[in-house]
Amino acid sequence: MNRDPQSWARLGHALRSAREARGCTQAELGELAGVSGRSVQDAEAGTVPKSRMPYTLGRIAAALGWPEGAVDAVLDGAAPPGEGWRDVPADQGQIDAERLAGIMTNAMVRATEHATAAEIRAATKIALDELRKQGLIAETDGVQPSTNQANS
């Protein structure tokens, strides 16, 4: 479990922002989540738990519409849902390999600390090849991950 106080403070702020964006009180969110208003208050305080991840966090996140795994992702440094995350219906989620490569490369840059740009591009290529094998993206004529400055 992540024990970094800054990560927990970021999570608490994200939960509070999401609740306020929905226009509900801590007590109302607690009721929606099936937890106490105090549990919501504690989650928003961003205090590092003493022993283990509180089970109430998953319920609160779900009541806010966050996807499964979002709490851990935010604790690990990802943007909270609603800040760059969005659901796209599967039939509208068509994406070309080059754009997907750019997105994946940017994500890997944010997720890794010591990898070089070449290592990240190689990992992106491996992921794209696997997506092609599984028929999730179209075969291409050698499209490689974007190497523009924004993606390296």
Summarize this, please?
The protein is mostly helical and 152 residues long. The chain is 53% helix and 0% strand. The protein is elongated, with a radius of gyration of 19 Å.
List descriptors:
7 helices, single chain, elongated, mainly alpha, 152 residues
Distance between the termini: 30 Å
Number of helices: 7
Oligomer: single chain
SSE order in H/E notation? HHHHHHH
User: What is the general shape?
Assistant: elongated
Let me know the number of strands.
0
The averaged pLDDT comes out at 79
Amount of helix: 40-55%
Biggest sheet character: none
Strand pairing plus helix content: what structural class? mainly alpha
Spans of at least 5 consecutive residues whose pLDDT stays below 50 are 145-152
Instruction: Provide the β-strand percentage band.
Output: under 5%
| Rg, Å, rounded | 19 Å
